[in-house]
């Protein structure tokens, strides 16, 4: 499912955008950068949820459905961690790395599956 791959790539790109926006905020870009970080974050989370829905609709292999479900859960936990503070709050940016890795794995698996599937004329 090309859409599944595209959504995973969008999540990966979204993580990079998120890092830039929060970095800009930390270095003085102002509250607009923080607002953008939050807005993009909710958009990325919506895409994470869509990845799972698309995996189910496309009836992808069990492992891909599982990874897509993990993406939805991980993204939800990461969003929940925005309310944490101190040491627990530090898990929010750490989980962004896990989201990035998982998005890359999902995209790579999808691309490999496309290469293995013969083209239908």
**Strand residues, percent:** under 5%
Taking Cα atoms only, what radius of gyration do you get, to the nearest Å?
Answer: 16 Å
Query: By helix and strand content, what is the structural category?
Result: mainly alpha
| Euclidean distance between termini CA atoms | 17 Å
Helix content: over 70%
Largest sheet: none
Low-confidence segments: none
Q: Based on CA inertia axes, which overall geometry fits? A: elongated
On the 0 to 100 scale, the average pLDDT is 95
Q: How many beta-strand elements?
A: 0
**Would you list the SSEs in sequence order as H and E?**
HHHHH
Describe this structure in a few short sentences:
This protein is mainly α and 121 residues long. The protein is built from five helices and no strands.
Describe the structure.
The chain has 121 residues and is mainly alpha-helical. The chain is 86% helix and 0% strand. It has five helices and no strands. Helix 1 packs antiparallel against helix 2, helix 1 runs antiparallel to helix 5 and helix 2 packs antiparallel against helix 3. The longest helix is centred in the N-terminal third of the chain and has 28 residues. The two termini are 17 Å apart.
């Amino acid at each position: 499912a090309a859409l599944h791959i595209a959504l995973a790539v969008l999540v990966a790109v979204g993580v990079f955008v998120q890092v830039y926006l929060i970095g800009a905020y930390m270095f003085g870009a102002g509250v607009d950068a923080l607002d953008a970080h939050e807005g993009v974050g909710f958009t990325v989370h919506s895409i994470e949820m869509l990845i799972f829905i698309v995996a189910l609709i496309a009836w992808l292999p069990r492992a891909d459905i599982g990874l897509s479900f993990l993406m939805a859960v991980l993204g939800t936990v990461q969003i929940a961690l925005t309310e944490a503070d101190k040491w627990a709050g530090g898990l929010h940016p750490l989980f962004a790395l896990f989201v990035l890795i998982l998005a890359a794995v999902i995209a790579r698996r999808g691309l490999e599956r496309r290469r293995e599937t013969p083209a239908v004329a």
